[in-house]
Amino acid sequence: MSSEGSGGVLLGIDLGGTRIKAARFSTDGEWESESQSHSNGREKAEEIFAKLHSVASDLIGSDRLAGVGVGVAGVFDAQSGRIVKSPNMPTLNGFDLRGQIQSAFGEVPIHIMNDANAAALGEFHAGAGMGAESMFLLTLGTGIGGGFVSGGEIWEGVAGVAGEVGHMCIQADGPLCNCGAKGCLEACVSSWALIRDANAAAGEKPDSPIAALPSLTPEDLAVLAAQGDEDARALWEKAGTMLGIGIANLMNLLNPECIVLAGGLAKAGDLLLKPARKTWEVQAFDRAHESTSVRMGKLDEWAGVRGAVQPLLRP
């Protein structure tokens, strides 16, 4: 189905620290096309927005824009339209995202939310959470994010910062996080945390297979661990244990019908999930972990794009 003659097109955008992803939808939520661009969290805010504008303009083409939904990595102030804080894209701190979108695309409906909340809406309405009454999405990637959906709606908290599970402390006096605190889940489990620990391991054992890798990425470490390298397996075991503590906390605190895991690190499968499961089955109350299922996401890296347009869809 084309959007021509059907009230215009909607754009869903996921503004992340390494990529800007966008998709074009009909006003009924039918996915029509998508595009993306690489981004760098250290670029100037204007440069990042220029890439967003380019990707969005290509998708709109000559059609009428009916609305824009954006998921952004960080804390967004709905009243001012500004990004309050983005740990992985610090140049966007204080950036008037809503104002810039209005200047670029006119007075169209705009809905902006945290990227993990957007991904949670996407998985709940069109992915692994379909049919559930409540769901917590845990995104495992460059950073760690989360979003709690109950009755089809995101629970954002009084100031819009609910669900920031990546900055829940799970290790007192643990490693320093990008947010400035110590021991955050993100500082123990994320892609950058895993690479940090791998670099440390390579420094301690300069003749090890980890040190011999031409590049240190989670994918490389997963391959090495699958080949039986004990140092690589130890890194995944540590990360999985920390993840298990975080999941146990969510089970005990919220007891949702399901917890959905998404993001690049989730693709490590049992390397991460076996130690995580072993940990949450000990740390969480039996009734909590027995009643909350843990599922893998179905929309992959595009969950946030789908969820970003959910508030704009025709009822």
Along the chain, the helix and strand elements come as: EEEHEEEHEHEEEHHHHHEHHEH
The CATH topology assignment of the largest domain is Nucleotidyltransferase, domain 5
- CATH level-four homologous superfamily name of the largest domain: ATPase, nucleotide binding domain
Helix-strand makeup class: alpha/beta
**Overall residue-averaged pLDDT value:** 93
Give the CATH architecture of the largest domain. 2-Layer Sandwich
Strand order of the largest sheet: 3-2-1-4-7
- Radius of gyration, in Å, reads 20 Å
How many helical elements? 11
- Contiguous uncertain segments of 5+ residues: 1-5
Characterization of this structure:
The chain is α/β, with parallel strands linked by helices. The chain contains eleven helices and twelve strands. The chain has helices spanning 45-60, 97-105, 115-126, 185-189, 191-204, 209-212, 218-226, 230-254, 270-283, 286-291, 303-308, and strands at 9-15, 19-25, 31-38, 65-72, 75-77, 82-85, 110-114, 134-140, 144-150, 153-154, 258-262, 293-296. The protein has a five-stranded mixed beta sheet with strand order 3-2-1-4-7. It has a five-stranded mixed beta sheet with strand order 10-9-8-11-12, sandwiched between helices.
SSE diagram, text form:
Layout: E1 9-15, E2 19-25, E3 31-38, H1 45-60, E4 65-72, E5 75-77, E6 82-85, H2 97-105, E7 110-114, H3 115-126, E8 134-140, E9 144-150, E10 153-154, H4 185-189, H5 191-204, H6 209-212, H7 218-226, H8 230-254, E11 258-262, H9 270-283, H10 286-291, E12 293-296, H11 303-308
Parallel strand pairs: 1-4, 4-7, 8-11, 11-12
Antiparallel strand pairs: 1-2, 2-3, 5-6, 8-9, 9-10
Helix pairs in contact: 5-8, 7-8, 8-9
